[in-house]
Amino acid sequence: MSTQKPLLVAVVGVGLVGSEFISQLLSIPSPSPLKLISLTSSTRTLTLDPNSSSSSAPQLKNEWKSLLSSSSLPADLQSLTTRLTTLVSQDKERVILVDNTSSDSVAALYPTWLAQGINVVTPNKKAYSGDVQLWKDILEASSSQGGGRYLNEATVGAGLPVISTLKELLGTGDKIIKIEGVFSGTMSYIFNEFSTGREGGPAFSAVVGVAREKGYTEPHPADDLNGFDVARKLTILSRIISSFPTSSPSTLPPLQSFKSVKTASLIPPELEGIPTGDEFLARLPAHDAQFAKLREEASKEGKVLRFVGVVDVKGGEVRAGLEKYPTTHPFATSLGGSDNIIMFHTERYSPRPLIIQGAGAGAAVTAMGVLGDVLKLV
Amino acid sequence: MSTQKPLLVAVVGVGLVGSEFISQLLSIPSPSPLKLISLTSSTRTLTLDPNSSSSSAPQLKNEWKSLLSSSSLPADLQSLTTRLTTLVSQDKERVILVDNTSSDSVAALYPTWLAQGINVVTPNKKAYSGDVQLWKDILEASSSQGGGRYLNEATVGAGLPVISTLKELLGTGDKIIKIEGVFSGTMSYIFNEFSTGREGGPAFSAVVGVAREKGYTEPHPADDLNGFDVARKLTILSRIISSFPTSSPSTLPPLQSFKSVKTASLIPPELEGIPTGDEFLARLPAHDAQFAKLREEASKEGKVLRFVGVVDVKGGEVRAGLEKYPTTHPFATSLGGSDNIIMFHTERYSPRPLIIQGAGAGAAVTAMGVLGDVLKLV
């Protein structure tokens, strides 16, 4: 391989995933194909000179946090955009913007960046599962003359190769029949503990309480139990399928946003809109009986409950909700912890699906999914 | 994305996998980023003009077999090499040689092609699991100035994303602890049928006989039962790990060839060297008792037998052979048909591994793995 100029990487968002991403990027053995040129937190920006060799990767790895917190430059996405655009258009550099936030306002800038030839890599689900117009703008900007590329592997299954596998199946002409999986690490943990196929078991509210203590849920558990996280991931997969050039028109419904996914929320109607997680948890035990009843019905049929997401291409439906699976099914036997599992039923992988399984959340594996995308652009 | 000149693809080997690959390649919707420029069978060559638009993909898809069989050009890898070298060096074209044979002599040419800047994609395990000198020559040729790239996803697990996942784990700085899997579709089928964890079951020779009738084994079943196919796949994975730039030296043994893998053959010593598959199968029942004994021992422990391959990075060992797994283990519960399953135990995917599972053999999924690699080079 010929040695190329390094790709310039600008990072927005330096929280848990962002910090881990920076650490992984700066741990790539020299000579790295990547060069960090800026870091933007919610309040500040640190600009690094791409041509300076003064700050080596190991040194920067130790110092970026203090350098960023002592920087006098405010966080300003407008000037970041101007700087990156100049690097691409005047200096003919290859630039990647890595959005490690979960912000809607950062996501709204992807079309601008892509149109300028800036590549965009992110674990942020907002742009790809939000309003369909933003999705269309992204597709258009990226496919325009000189447009940048976007990759978002870490939006589904964190570091697991879910989106790349889907694209390879589609790109080589396979036909997707159905994608079915446990897409939420939180829901995975909750139902692996709650529903084992054996009779009885812990109360639903107790399991949710433990999951929250362990940090597996959002501060407000309703933000997991509403199923929106799963609906967003299904929207992302569904749109990839629909946007792929094939001979036959997509049978999937056009999703206006993740809210168009048929999602069966687990929030009891009486507990909708409760403002705090603490109050929600305090009132959840009053609804334990109905979850116990569902579990009992399932175990009588030799089944377990799992909160799954389904992109049913053949049936033309995208849905998220509680479903029952035999205790011999991989969703029952094979899952543990907060594992994700994704099954691709396709023309070629039929009758037995292609399966991908493993941790689907956590900073290290999410950052890995992001860095993997960045390395694909090298 | 800017529109680029198509990549030129030369195919050597038009058997089951080769034909399916050509069919998949020619089914890519127009405008395809790939252009077929030559087909070479064991006897003939068909040369296609990259600048001619006379033969469209759909037309070629119907006609390539008859065009090739009526071609008067002999199969001649020397002149193919000359032609491709000229396309790369003089015409500045990007060229991919796809080796769909299982030939040692084609594999021996990879260093020559790579050194000339020709990219090489293949499901052929020979070069990557054979003599270590060929492997070193490939690495050197590819990393030389202007060298071509090589990709070989389909050598392990066919279309399953095994090698790409391994490279992504390594490339993003994860540490591999152990890779463990059922790597042979044939062995998978045989032991899924033979050892279910329940007491008793069919005779070993009967299962092997059925597998052969179904076309799951080589014509001579000893070519599967010797474990060499698994040893080759482990060699490929092991060399990828060892060759990756990291801070710590590899703890894996340098493998002189796949024969250096500790492989526990399933061929009874008395049946070594039997010339025909028919005679082998006729004499196998005399050894059924010893396989039944192993199965009985396993089932008494609540376990099943599986023929697995292990790259134990932490333990510094690469081995293939029969091992016992609890009936609750994914190798026991989750496998069916001739599925492969591969578990990556890593620093990040720990204690629960990253798992990839699905059909690991067959023309459609193997060709898909090859075409996926070709598309990665676009």
UniProtKB/TrEMBL annotation, chains A, B:
Domain Aspartate/homoserine dehydrogenase NAD-binding stretches: 13-147
Residues binding NADP(+): G13, V14, G15, L16, V17, G18
Active site: K233
EC id: 1.1.1.3
Domain Homoserine dehydrogenase catalytic: 161-375
GO molecular function, one term: NADP binding
Keywords (A to Z) from UniProt: Amino-acid biosynthesis, Methionine biosynthesis, NADP, Oxidoreductase, Threonine biosynthesis
Binding site for NADPH: T101, K125
Top-level taxonomic group: Eukaryota
Pathway(s): Amino-acid biosynthesis; L-methionine biosynthesis via de novo pathway; L-homoserine from L-aspartate: step 3/3; Amino-acid biosynthesis; L-threonine biosynthesis; L-threonine from L-aspartate: step 3/5
Family to which the UniProt record says this protein belongs: Belongs to the homoserine dehydrogenase family.
UniProt-recorded name of the protein: Homoserine dehydrogenase
Taxonomy of the source species: Eukaryota, Fungi, Dikarya, Basidiomycota, Agaricomycotina
